[in-house]
Automatic annotation (TrEMBL):
Residues 422-520 form the HTH araC/xylS-type domain. It comes from Paenibacillus wynnii. InterPro entries: CdaR_GGDEF, CheY-like_superfamily, Homeodomain-like_sf, HTH_AraC, Sig_transdc_resp-reg_receiver, Tscrpt_reg_AraC-type_HTH. One of its GO terms (biological process) is phosphorelay signal transduction system. SUPFAM superfamilies: CheY-like (SSF52172), Homeodomain-like (SSF46689). The modification 4-aspartylphosphate is found at residue 56. This is AraC family transcriptional regulator. It comes from the Bacteria. Keywords: DNA-binding, Phosphoprotein, Transcription, Transcription regulation. Residues 4-121 form the Response regulatory domain.
C-alpha cells in the first residue's frame, strides 16, 4: 500500500519545489495534497488517509507546531517532519515535545530529504506489518472460541491460548463493537441467489477494508450480516472511526449499518461485559432506529407496560380514521408506540399491533366494514411485519396502511352519500306532483329527518325544502307552457289546494305570478 504524504508551506514556490522533489524520490509515495495553511491541511486529513506530513514550522495564523498538535488528534499515527531555517531552530524544543518524527533545515539537500522519507517509509511499512500480524494473529478457530467466550453468560477466564491476545489488546484499553448490516434479508428476498451473494460480498468487503485501513482492531465475522470489532484504538478515535464507517457505508452502498458499542475496559471481565453492552445497544436499534452508532441505551428506552388508556387511544385512532383526519391518525399512532410501548422487544410490539388491529377490526365490523379486506391483508398477522428491524419501520408501515384505510373509507362514504343523494333526487322527481316533506322522505330512506337534511345540504348545497320548491317551480313552468292547461288546474295537479298560496309561492321564486309569466312568454 502506497505511503500518503501531505505537504504544507505558505510559500507557493517552496511548496511546488518540495512536491516535485518528493515525487522524484523513487519511493512508493503518493502526494495527497499540497496546501498553504494548517487549516487546509486539517481539512485534507478529514478526507484522506495521511501517513506523513512535511510542514514548514513557521506559518502565519497557525504555526506548524500548532497544526501538528491538531493533526495528532485527528490521526495519532501520522508522522510529522518539520522544515525550517536556522533562525527558527528555537522551535525544535516544541517539535520534540509534540513527538515530531524529524526535522530538516533549509535549504534541504536531496540526500537529507530522501534519507528522511526512506526511513519513515520503512518505519511505516514495519508498523503496518505489525498491525497486519496483530489483526491476523487469531486463526478462524481461535476467533470462534473467542466469540463463544463472549456469548457465555458467565465471565469465566478466557482460554490460555486466547489470553495472550486479550492481554495485548487490553494494555491500552479496548471495547467491543458489533456491526450489523440493516435490512439485508428482506431487501434481497426477490433477487437471484447469485446476485444476493455478490451484493453481500461487496458490502462485507467494504466493512473489512475499512476496518483494516483505519486499523480499528480485530474483526470477527459472526454471520454474513454481523461482525464484531475489538478496538485497537483509543476510545475517542475508535468511536470516531465507527461513525465514519456508518457514514461511508450509507454513502457508498444502497445499504446501511448499525453499530452497537460497549464501554472501554482494561481487563478480561470488563471486555466480556463490553460485548454484552454492545449486544444490548444493538438490540436497541429496534426502538432507537438504524443507520447509526448506539452506545448507552439506559436513558433512551421507554419504560413500563402497555398503558391502561390503550383502549381509549385506539378508539380515538378509529375516529380519526373514519373522519379522514391524517394528522390525528399520526398523533394517535405516535402515542401508542411511544407512551404505551414496552421496552421488552419485538414480541411486545407485535402483541400491541395485534391488539390495535383486532380492536379496529371489531369496531369497523359494527359499521359493516372489514379491516383485513379493506387493507387486503392475507391474514390477521401479515408476514411483512416480521421482516422489519425497527419499531420506526413498523410505525411507518402502519401509518401508510391506516392513511390508506382512512382514504378508502372516505371515498366509499362519498360514493355512498352520492348514491343516496341521487336516489333522493330521483324520488323527488318521481313525486313532484305530490306533497313532499323531509320527514316523509327520511322515513322512506330509513334516516332521521335531521341527519338526512344535514347530509342533503352538505352534498347538494341547498336545504332540502328549497331544493323541492325549486324542482316544483321548474315543473310548474313546464306545465304553464301548455296553453290548454288552466292555472288552477296546474296548481291542483302540483298538490296546491290553495290557489293564492300557489301564486305567492311561484312569485317568491320567479319574481312573477303564473299569469304574469304566461304574459311575458306570450303563452
Amino acid at each position: 500500500m502506497s505511503i500518503n504524504v501531505l505537504l504544507v508551506d505558505d510559500e507557493a514556490v517552496d511548496l511546488e519545489w518540495l512536491r516535485r522533489r518528493v515525487l522524484a524520490s523513487g519511493l512508493d509515495i503518493t502526494v495527497v495534497g499540497t496546501v498553504s495553511s494548517g487549516f487546509n491541511a486539517l481539512k485534507v486529513m478529514e478526507e484522506e488517509r495521511v501517513d506523513i506530513i512535511l510542514s514548514d514550522i513557521r506559518m502565519p495564523i497557525m504555526t506548524g507546531t500548532e497544526f501538528a498538535r491538531r493533526a495528532k488528534v485527528v490521526n495519532p499515527k501520522t508522522k510529522i517532519v518539520f522544515i525550517s531555517g536556522h533562525e527558527d531552530f528555537s522551535y525544535a524544543k516544541e517539535a520534540i515535545e509534540i513527538n515530531a518524527s524529524g526535522y530538516l533545515l533549509k535549504p534541504v539537500e536531496d540526500k537529507d530529504l530522501y534519507e528522511m522519507l526512506g526511513s519513515l517509509c520503512a518505519k511505516m511499512e514495519q508498523e503496518r506489518e505489525q498491525d497486519r500480524s496483530y489483526i491476523e494473529a487469531l486463526s478462524l478457530v481461535n476467533k470462534e472460541l473467542l466469540l463463544r467466550w463472549f456469548e457465555e453468560g458467565r465471565t469465566d477466564p478466557a482460554e490460555p491460548h486466547l489470553r495472550s491476545h486479550l492481554t495485548s489488546l487490553l494494555q491500552k484499553g479496548s471495547a467491543a463493537a458489533i456491526v450489523e448490516i440493516d435490512d439485508l434479508e428482506w431487501k434481497m428476498r426477490d433477487l437471484p441467489e447469485e446476485e444476493v451473494r455478490n451484493r453481500t460480498r461487496q458490502i462485507t468487503d467494504m466493512i473489512k477494508a475499512f476496518v483494516e485501513e483505519a486499523k480499528l482492531g480485530t474483526l470477527i465475522a459472526v454471520q454474513h450480516t454481523r461482525f464484531v470489532i475489538l478496538a485497537a484504538l483509543s476510545q475517542e478515535n475508535f468511536l470516531h472511526q465507527l461513525e465514519e464507517l456508518v457514514g461511508k457505508v450509507a454513502e457508498k452502498s444502497p445499504y446501511t449499518v448499525t453499530v452497537g458499542v460497549g464501554r472501554y475496559a482494561q481487563e478480561e471481565t470488563g471486555l466480556h461485559e463490553s460485548y454484552q453492552q454492545a449486544q444490548a445497544a444493538l438490540s436497541a436499534k429496534w426502538l432507537l432506529g438504524k443507520n447509526r452508532l448506539i452506545r448507552d441505551t439506559t436513558e433512551s428506552l421507554p419504560r413500563g407496560t402497555p398503558g391502561a388508556f390503550l383502549e381509549q387511544t385506539v378508539d380515538r385512532l378509529l375516529e380519526a380514521i373514519i373522519q379522514y383526519d391524517l394528522v390525528a391518525i399520526d398523533d394517535h399512532l405516535l402515542e401508542l408506540f411511544t407512551k404505551d410501548l414496552p421496552a421488552a422487544g419485538k414480541k411486545d410490539v407485535y402483541g400491541l399491533i395485534i391488539r390495535i388491529t383486532s380492536k379496529l377490526h371489531a369496531d369497523l365490523q359494527q359499521q359493516n366494514e372489514n379491516l383485513y379486506e379493506l387493507l387486503q391483508w392475507e391474514s390477521h398477522q401479515p408476514d411483512i411485519l416480521f421482516q422489519f428491524e425497527t419499531v420506526h419501520d413498523i410505525l411507518s408501515w402502519l401509518r401508510r396502511r391506516f392513511f390508506e384505510l382512512s382514504e378508502q373509507l372516505y371515498v366509499k362514504r362519498q360514493r355512498q352519500k352520492r348514491k343516496l343523494i341521487d336516489e333522493i333526487m330521483r324520488y323527488v322527481e318521481e313525486n313532484l306532483e305530490k306533497k313532499i316533506t323531509l320527514k316523509e322522505v327520511a322515513v322512506h330512506f330509513d334516516f332521521t329527518p335531521n341527519y338526512l337534511g344535514y347530509l342533503f345540504k352538505e352534498e347538494y348545497g341547498l336545504p332540502f325544502s328549497e331544493y323541492v320548491n325549486e324542482r316544483k317551480t321548474n315543473r310548474v313552468t313546464e306545465l304553464l307552457s301548455d296553453p290548454t292547461l288552466k292555472i288552477y288546474e296546474i296548481a291542483d295537479r302540483m298538490g296546491y289546494k290553495n290557489i293564492i298560496y300557489f301564486n305567492r309561492q311561484f312569485k317568491q321564486i320567479t319574481g312573477m305570478t303564473p299569469g304574469e309569466y304566461r304574459k311575458k312568454n306570450k303563452i
